[in-house]
Amino acid sequence: PSPIGVFIAPVTPLQQNCTVVWCAATNKAAIIDPGGSVDMVLAEVKRRGLIPDQIWITHGHLDHAGGAAEMQEKTGLQIIGPHPEDQFWIDGIPAQGRAYGLPDARAFTPD
């Protein structure tokens, strides 16, 4: 068997991919780029018996990072990334969300 697992979930009306990777030995999972649809992603994590461990953000665009604040609020997990120079994108997430029909998208401060 593979030492890692992975599933991809299209999230938000923009259909950006949120990826979840996990260690097959521990079932600890990293949730990568939760742009939105947080409840759906967390339900699938739970259904698979995974243990959420970290939130990873590859970059600060709305469709990749717009659900990070909600994911952190619901799980208490650390947000890892993106690069500090992406903070201006993160700070603009609420305005971007309103413009693209995702009014619940919020800014956050990476850990």
Main sheet makeup: 5 strands, mixed
**CA-atom Rg in angstroms:** 13 Å
What is the count of helical runs?
A: 5
Q: Uncertain runs with pLDDT below 50, 5 residues or more?
A: none
Written as H for each helix and E for each strand, in order along the chain, the element string is EEEHEHHEHH
What structural category characterises the helix and strand content? alpha/beta
Find the count of extended strands (DSSP E, 2+ residues).
5
Shape by Cα distribution: globular
N-to-C span: 33 Å
Mean pLDDT: 96
The fraction of residues in strands falls at 25-35%
- How much helix, percentage-wise, in residues? 25-40%
Main-sheet strand order equals 1-2-3-4-5
Explain what the structure shows.
The chain contains 5 helices and 5 strands; from the N terminus they run βββαβααβαα. Strand 3, helix 1 and strand 4 form a beta-alpha-beta unit. It is globular. The longest helix has 10 residues. It has 111 residues and is α/β, with parallel strands linked by helices. The protein is 31% helix and 26% strand. A 5-stranded mixed beta sheet has the order 1-2-3-4-5, with helices on one face.
Which helices and strands, and how do they pair?
Layout: E1 4-11, E2 16-23, E3 28-32, H1 38-47, E4 51-56, H2 62-65, H3 68-75, E5 79-80, H4 87-91, H5 93-99
Parallel strand pairs: 3-4, 4-5
Antiparallel strand pairs: 1-2, 2-3
